[in-house]
Amino acid sequence: MKKVVLGLVIAVSLMACQENESFKRDYSGSETVYPLQQASDYTINGTVTFKEECDGTALIVVALSGTEGNIEHPVHLHLGDITATGADVAALLNPVLGKTGISETKLLTLADESPITYKQLINLNACIKVHLAASGPDRDVILAGGNIGSAASTDLSSGRSGIGICSSK
């Protein structure tokens, strides 16, 4: 009986190591984190993390604090600085789930279907905006946002009043 139990423990340990090794192989180890600041009367902020996968693509993880409930908050990658009004949407990311505050998106292409790599993404002049809702008047309420890539060096000292309204397209 002891041999069977010992064999099971060894087998489980080997499977766990293989799973961890597989996970490590999926990512190059490069990642870039940007802050997302509160952008409305809702007390919501967090980070967006870009992780480079071994194939050069990016996994984008938005992590917010202050969200709740079953609502899904749309996340847009916009071209240009966050202060620009009507900035084009470069990509629609998976929504942030209110109950977890998390969104994960593997980004392979932009809205114009051009491919994008992790290295291109972290050099892009762009911003991330998380909206209250996908439609109606709450669509224009931005919960949190921040500049990424080459726009990340832009001064946001004007706070949430400096965040531009998104294009209605």
Number of strands: 8
Q: Name the beta content range.
A: 35-45%
Main sheet makeup:
8 strands, antiparallel
Distance between the termini: 67 Å
Strand-pairing-aware structural class: alpha+beta
CATH topology: Immunoglobulin-like
Tell me the strand order in the biggest sheet: 5-4-7-8-1-2-3-6
Radius of gyration: 19 Å
Shape: globular
> Which regions have little confidence, pLDDT < 50, spanning 5+ residues?
4-23
What is the fold's blueprint, element by element?
Elements: H1 2-26, E1 27-38, E2 45-53, E3 58-65, E4 72-79, E5 89-97, E6 102-107, H2 118-121, E7 125-131, E8 142-149
Antiparallel strand pairs: 1-2, 1-8, 2-3, 3-6, 4-5, 4-7, 7-8
Task: Provide a descriptive summary of the structure in words.
It is built from 2 helices and 8 strands; from the N terminus they run H-E-E-E-E-E-E-H-E-E. Residues 4-23 have low confidence and may be disordered. A hairpin with a 4-residue loop joins strand 2 and strand 3. An 8-stranded antiparallel β-sheet has the order 5-4-7-8-1-2-3-6. 17% of the residues lie in helices and 40% in strands. The protein is an alpha+beta fold and 169 residues long. The protein has one domain: Immunoglobulin-like, CATH 2.60.40. It has helices spanning 2-26, 118-121; strands at residues 27-38, 45-53, 58-65, 72-79, 89-97, 102-107, 125-131, 142-149.
